[in-house]
User: Which sequence fits this backbone?
């Protein structure tokens, strides 16, 4: 499970600097998609934490998750701010 997560994350990183401007409706839809993914993946996340705990690495995995979550949220907020400036022009 952890290996699959790492592979998926590596694949996504190649799109890290790709930009896409969203209008207000698209932004709201994207926020809904993110919420759905978070809700539906909570079981998977719990399993990852359980596996990490069995290996004595739960603290590290949770720390990585929280750091990634904060970084992704910061990037999302920055993107939304940029989009709002584009929409106001």
Assistant:
């Amino acid at each position: 499970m952890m290996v699959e997560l790492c592979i998926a994350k590596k694949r996504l990183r190649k799109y890290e600097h790709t930009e896409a401007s969203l209008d207000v409706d698209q932004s709201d839809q994207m926020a809904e998609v993110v919420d759905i993914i978070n809700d539906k993946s909570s079981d998977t996340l719990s399993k990852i934490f359980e596996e990490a705990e069995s290996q004595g690495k739960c603290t590290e995995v949770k720390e990585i998750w929280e750091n990634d979550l904060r970084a992704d949220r910061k990037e999302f907020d920055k993107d939304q701010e940029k989009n709002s400036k584009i929409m106001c022009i």
